[in-house]
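User: For my dataset I need records formatted as: sequence, then structure tokens, nothing else. Please produce one.
Assistant:
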Amino acid sequence: MARIRLGMVGGGNDAFIGGVHRIASRIDDRFDLVAGALSSTPEKSAASAEALGIPRSYGSFEEMAEAEAAREDGIEAVSIVTPNHVHAAAAKAFLAKGIHVICDKPLTSTLEDAEALAASVAEAEALFILTHNYTGYPMIRQARAMVAAGDLGEIRIVQAEYPQDWLTAPAENEGVKQAEWRTDPARSGAGGSVGDIGTHAHNLACFVSGLEVESLAADLQCWGAGRKLDDNAHMMLRFAGGARGMLWSSQVAPGNENALKLRVYGDKGGLEWSQEDPNYLWFTPLGEPKRLITRNGAGASEASQAVSRIPGGHPEGYLEGFATIYNEAADAIRAVQGGARRESAMGVLPDITAGMAGMRFITACVTSSANDAAWTKL
């Protein structure tokens, strides 16, 4: 099957996340990157396109959407990898032209922009996909399938944490571009750690458990001197159906690089997973010894095997998780091009609903903390 013609907004040749998306889009050989509005100026965009070997360069996403939609060989999908405040406008421009959108998370920088984008997605014929990449890990698919099959029984407790340490020192004042925009409310939004990594932990907790957070009580801190957004957050969670949970996100916890962890407990057993050891899933049936399930090993489910690319014992992780989202996005795009309905084509891909849940989570966290950790509905 022919590769899907892909464009990119943001993600110039010196941008970390742009490189991640480009690699992920190529792992399963489903996309050709043929156009880009890669930077904030036409000159920088052209220089990045030349360095990366991208044939067509544009000075803005508006220009790119207009021109590519008019070409017979124009892009079929676009990857949006800009800071958060650009997501909504860029996505709406391409959706209006019938071009499928693959957008980095969180959805936008404000709930108002997110609601406007959701309205555009509802009216569009094109797909909208959010790259919550951790949902693409094989052992996360395994965990989700086990919960859905009732292996844990009725879910009672969901614990998620995502600590990092890279903002312990004032990196935003030391020329680190990632830190500069992620600590800037105008570009990042109202949430700091809760928006950047807390949304990942929230999304994963809901994706695996099959539950939705109904309300939360959050306590947000800014430990960095002069920092305007939270860099550490603790919260208690109440899920629909009665389950309870806790979530911790931090970017000022020395010794933690990317320590996303999830624990889910029901009345029949529990699961534990760590992103830094992603090929292992621990399952403990009540009253029995712990069992180790390995990626593509004995006991691996069809759901996890379907997104495993190599034999067990060979590590798969971050890039492959992103690649799974891109691979399933390609399947969904080809399906709707063949006449399938959008809802059936999407499968378990994170969509606008997941994006809106993340934005409501951020808003509730900020609101709760501002009101002395009062319980706040999403």
